[in-house]
């Protein structure tokens, strides 16, 4: 499983796979943000850009090689007592669990926002559908009314035409008889 921590500087979130600045308050930063935040500040005035913790000790923030060589891995804890080795490993693991916890919270917040956005869109879409449906019903009623009106007028016209035809028939009959 390849799992990388990400830069904790505001919205940077750059994946950290080879070099990183790490702090004792369990925060990690990319080379660019580590340089700008930690290198140019005067001693004893460093603060963590993620949590505001003061980083007074020279080991409160270090630049770590996230892909250490085999030689480094062989020597870095060599000579230390087993309980110290375990203590170091436990602290490194707690750094990781804090990072994973933060990432999970971040992803959960993202998912929540997306869900809320989707809900809003769905509600807006339902309202629009209802509005369109109402408009359609209105149009249908209008068509029915117009159709009824048209039928009425047509009937009136037919009746009128029939009435007009009677004198013509009478006249024709009179001419024929004479
Ligand atoms: Zn960064
Ligand atoms: Zn911090």
From TrEMBL:
<keyword id="KW-0862">Zinc</keyword>
<dbReference type="GO" id="GO:0061630">
    <property type="term" value="F:ubiquitin protein ligase activity"/>
</dbReference>
<dbReference type="InterPro" id="IPR042448">
    <property type="entry name" value="CCNB1IP1"/>
</dbReference>
<dbReference type="Pfam" id="PF14634">
    <property type="entry name" value="zf-RING_5"/>
</dbReference>
<dbReference type="GO" id="GO:0007131">
    <property type="term" value="P:reciprocal meiotic recombination"/>
</dbReference>
<dbReference type="GO" id="GO:0000795">
    <property type="term" value="C:synaptonemal complex"/>
</dbReference>
<protein>
    <recommendedName>
        <fullName>RING-type domain-containing protein</fullName>
    </recommendedName>
</protein>
<keyword id="KW-0479">Metal-binding</keyword>
<dbReference type="InterPro" id="IPR001841">
    <property type="entry name" value="Znf_RING"/>
</dbReference>
<keyword id="KW-0175">Coiled coil</keyword>
<keyword id="KW-0863">Zinc-finger</keyword>
<feature type="coiled-coil region">
    <location>
        <begin position="129"/>
        <end position="163"/>
    </location>
</feature>
<feature type="domain" description="RING-type">
    <location>
        <begin position="7"/>
        <end position="52"/>
    </location>
</feature>
<dbReference type="GO" id="GO:0008270">
    <property type="term" value="F:zinc ion binding"/>
</dbReference>
């Amino acid at each position: 499983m390849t799992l990388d921590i990400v830069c904790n500087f505001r919205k940077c979130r750059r994946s950290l796979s080879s070099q990183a600045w790490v702090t004792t308050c369990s925060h990690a930063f990319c080379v660019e943000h580590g340089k700008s935040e930690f290198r140019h500040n005067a001693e004893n005035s460093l603060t963590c850009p993620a949590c505001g913790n003061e980083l007074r000790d020279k080991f409160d923030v270090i630049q770590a090689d996230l892909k250490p060589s085999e030689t480094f891995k062989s020597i870095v804890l060599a000579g230390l007592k087993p309980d110290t080795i375990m203590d170091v490993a436990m602290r490194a693991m707690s750094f990781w669990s804090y990072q994973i916890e933060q990432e999970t919270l971040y992803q959960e917040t993202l998912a929540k926002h997306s869900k809320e956005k989707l809900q809003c869109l769905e509600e807006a879409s339902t309202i629009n559908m209802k509005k369109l449906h109402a408009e359609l019903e209105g149009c249908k009623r209008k068509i029915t009314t117009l159709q009824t009106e048209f039928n009425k007028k047509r009937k009136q016209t037919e009746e009128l035409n029939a009435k007009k035809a009677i004198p013509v028939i009478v006249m024709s009959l009179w001419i024929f008889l004479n």
